[in-house]
Specification:
Keywords: Iron, Iron-sulfur, Metal-binding
Organism: Hydrogenophaga palleronii
InterPro entries: Elp3/MiaA/NifB-like_rSAM, MJ0683-like, rSAM, rSAM_sf
Shape: globular
Distance between the termini: 47 Å
Largest sheet: 7 strands, mixed
Number of helices: 12
CATH superfamily: Aldolase class I
Protein name: DNA repair photolyase
Pfam family, one: Radical_SAM
Radius of gyration: 21 Å
CATH architecture: Alpha-Beta Barrel
Order of helices and strands: HEEEEHEHEHHEHEHHEHEHHH
Length: 365
């Protein structure tokens, strides 16, 4: 399957403005100039008249907890209440997962969402299974558990209620300020070493954040979330990810602001461009940074051994080569100077009490 030029433009409030074909499609799609100049007009227009509304469908989850054996991840178990993410981050490595739903990793990923409405009930039953052994659980490993639709659906809150009742430890990474709503659950868990929250701040540049992560909370709002978590006693950290060469260059400033707000843990990853994300990110660069697009991709390829992306577990998160070493040095020196990642207490797996869930049956019907 080949895909020729797709006109690139801005769609207000969305990260990707077109329906990027996915890798399982059999058809070829190409932009066609009909001789009236409409193709050029489409590109020059810059913005469509109306952005598509978010659509949410529901599914009955067969399982709540996923397992991974990836040696470069700091957790074994994962849980995601939603498929797709309305935040619309252009760099999101999870975009290609929408291909498995026969949907576009482009615009569909951020406008056609799937909610696992029974996930809390399924989680409860999984934790009650005889012989279940607790391991590190990360909530929102693929898509953000606090994306805007969580305000109404509250599936993440239901999950937290189950985990809290069972004294099951969790960590989560989010760009959503909605996590503050659940402090009544997270604060007691944090005090018992049962919860940790990481807030992703890719840049402090509000203009850049608006085009990188159009529906995520603004950078200053995420700093307020860090402060709110820290003041409530929740162990809180910051993710300065992804690091995109020549785009978000303020890693040190982000770490300083996050530390001042109360974050005491930090990590980063480099930009990853699996599958359909490669052409989408290249188009985004041509649209917003045409003057440096080739330079950005050349450096990305340096980080991934000469390719747009190398999925090798040993290097995919931090990159390889001289530029990866420079990133690591910048991060390490700044963290050491500020005091990040000192005295990190692990989450306590020994408090797990599944029997406490038996009284929750009525909550889930």
């Amino acid at each position: 399957m080949t895909h020729d030029h797709i006109p690139i433009h801005v769609l207000k409030g969305r990260g990707i403005a077109h329906h990027q074909p996915h890798r399982f499609e059999a058809d070829t799609r190409a932009a066609f100039d009909d001789g009236w100049g409409t193709l050029d007009e489409t590109v020059a227009a810059g913005e469509e008249a109306a952005a598509p509304a978010t659509q949410v469908s529901f599914e009955e989850a067969r399982s709540a907890i996923t397992r991974n054996a990836s040696p470069d991840l700091g957790f074994t178990l994962g849980l995601n209440p939603y498929r797709g993410c309305e935040h619309g981050c252009v760099y999101c490595y999870a975009r290609p997962t929408h291909s498995y739903l026969n949907l576009s990793p482009g615009l569909d990923f951020e406008t056609r969402l799937v909610a696992k409405r029974n996930i809390a009930a399924v989680l409860r039953e999984e934790l009650l299974r005889p012989g279940f052994v607790p391991e590190r659980l990360a909530v929102g490993t693929v898509t953000d558990a606090y994306q805007p639709i969580e305000r109404d659906l509250q599936l993440t809150r239901e999950v937290l209620a189950v985990l809290s009742a069972a004294h099951f430890p969790l960590a989560m990474v989010t760009k959503g300020s909605g996590v503050e709503r659940d402090l009544d659950l997270l604060a007691p868990m944090g005090a018992q070493r049962l919860a940790a929250v990481y807030v992703t701040i890719t840049t402090l540049d509000a203009k850049l954040a608006r085009i990188l992560e159009p529906r995520a909370a603004a950078p200053h709002r995420r700093l307020r979330t860090i402060r709110t978590m820290a003041e409530a006693g929740v162990p809180v950290g910051v993710s300065v990810s992804p690091q995109i060469p020549f785009i978000n260059t303020d890693m040190e400033q982000v770490l300083e602001a996050a530390y001042e707000a109360g974050a005491r843990r930090a990590f980063y990853q480099v930009l990853r461009l699996p599958w359909e994300l490669k052409p989408m990110f290249r188009q985004w660069l041509q649209l917003h940074y045409p003057d440096r697009a080739e330079r950005v991709m050349a450096r990305v390829q340096d980080l991934h051994g000469g390719k747009d992306y190398d999925a090798d577990f040993a290097t995919r998160m931090k990159g390889q080569g001289i530029w990866a070493d420079l990133l690591r040095q910048r991060f390490t020196k700044t963290c050491d100077r500020l005091g990040f990642n000192r005295d990190r207490e692990p989450l306590d797996l020994n408090q797990f009490r599944p029997a406490a869930l038996r009284g929750q049956r009525d909550l889930f019907g």
